[in-house]
Amino acid sequence: MPTDPLLRDAAANRPSAPAPQRLSVRFMLSHPFHAISLGFGSGLSPVMPGTAGTLFAWLSFAAFEHRISVIGWIALIVVGFFAGIGIAGFTAKRLGIDDPSPVVWDEIVAFWLVLLFVTPTSFVGQLSAFVIFRFFDMVKPPPVRYFDRHFSGGFGIMIDDLVAAFLTLLVIALWRVAIS
């Protein structure tokens, strides 16, 4: 802190970044963006929140699969991705962390995309898609790692999972071609 009283007063009155918040249900319910970005509570899992968020995506897709048309799912995924840039970035800033693991909206939107393209398929097919997606999201092999390291903010949070989704779909497509 400066010793000059005028400089000290100016420093004390300077706006500062918001203090990092503690993660809790109370925090999640404090703003609708937090509820969305934390996957409606799935991101609050103390163990592997990204996996919990992906499970939420799978369950919510199964619940609404026959109630939402393919065009509706595409619109939801596109809007979810672009809105997620702001929503996830807002929550990350409030938590004071660049890419907090409890922010799972990115996993949700990306896995909805995977399920939209692999469905209809069996439970085993969906489970395989889940495992492949989680592999790409957790291990972050190239090019996922590139996007994870070179982009920040809400866009950085969202884009690496979208790349993981595309790699998942590529692996599934190659597998289907190989066995046919």
Lay out the secondary structure.
Blueprint: H1 5-13, H2 25-29, H3 32-37, H4 49-64, H5 70-95, H6 105-118, H7 123-139, H8 144-150, H9 153-179
Helix pairs in contact: 4-6, 4-7, 5-6, 5-9, 6-7, 6-9, 7-9, 8-9
Task: Write up this protein.
This protein is mainly alpha-helical and 180 residues long. Helices cover 71% and strands 0% of the residues. The chain has helices at 5-13, 25-29, 32-37, 49-64, 70-95, 105-118, 123-139, 144-150, 153-179. The longest helix has 27 residues, at 153-179. The protein starts with a helix and ends with a helix. The model is unreliable at 4-16 (pLDDT under 50).
Mean pLDDT score: 91
Secondary structure tally: strands: 0
Radius of gyration: 19 Å
Distance between the termini: 70 Å
Shape: globular
Helicity level? over 70%
Structural class comes to: mainly alpha
Main β sheet profile: none
Give the percentage of residues in beta strands.
Answer: under 5%
The string of secondary-structure elements, in order, is HHHHHHHHH
The tally of helices reads: 9
Would you identify the regions where 5 or more consecutive residues have pLDDT less than 50?
4-16
